[in-house]
Write a structure and sequence with these properties.
The chain has helices at 3-19, 24-38, 44-63, 71-84, 96-105, 117-126, 146-157; strands spanning 87-93, 111-116, 128-134, 162-165, 168-172. With 181 residues, the chain is an alpha+beta fold.
Length: 181
């Protein structure tokens, strides 16, 4: 396996583990598929546990220096409050179709907030999570609308700097989610 492929596989293991949403089986499945595709000469049964183990060791070393309450902890509190207010919240979905189905299945939703797995991976690497906010009819919110202003106020009031840009809410946070695998 060349160095570039090794680096990419380690990077994938890193974001999958640090996301805090994927369980061991899902991480194993995703990495096994990546090894088979990108490093077919390698044995996934041998390489995947090493990749996961390395990512967990690195995460645990970093977590020792994290504050008691992290950005993802504050985000979880905001998302729970939005749910109490009647919004449907979909975390770490593979695409907007799943989020839309959750919205359509809800009884009298006030709106939808969601983010995808790749949004979380971006937050892991770059400290910014993109949230999508829709009205109950699946229309995107627009600047100045009360629903958007309420969500932005809640995020900013919980030490999660957030701005609306190009149809999405950009939340600045260090992705420090404690993980148990």
């Amino acid at each position: 396996m060349d160095e570039r492929t090794a680096r990419e596989l380690r990077g994938l293991a890193r974001v999958l583990v640090r996301s805090g949403y994927a369980d061991h089986a899902a991480i194993t499945a995703a990495l096994t598929e990546a090894v088979r595709e990108d490093a077919p000469s390698m044995d996934p049964a041998t390489l995947v546990p090493l990749l996961i183990g390395e990512a967990v060791i690195d995460l645990n070393a970093d977590a020792a220096g994290w504050p008691a309450t992290t950005g993802p902890d504050r985000l979880d509190a905001v998302l729970e409050e939005l749910e109490r207010r009647g919004l449907v919240v979909v975390r770490y979905t593979s695409d907007h179709h799943d989020a839309r189905q959750a919205l359509e299945a809800a009884g009298d939703p006030k709106g939808l907030v969601f983010f995808t797995d790749t949004d979380v991976w971006h937050a892991v690497d770059f400290g910014m999570l993109e949230l999508k906010l829709w009205h109950p009819d699946t229309a995107n919110v627009a600047p100045g609308e009360p629903l958007l202003e309420d969500v932005l106020s809640l995020l900013n009031g919980n030490d999660l700097p957030a701005v609306f840009d190009e149809g999405r809410i950009e939340v600045t946070l260090d992705w420090q989610r404690r993980v148990t695998l």
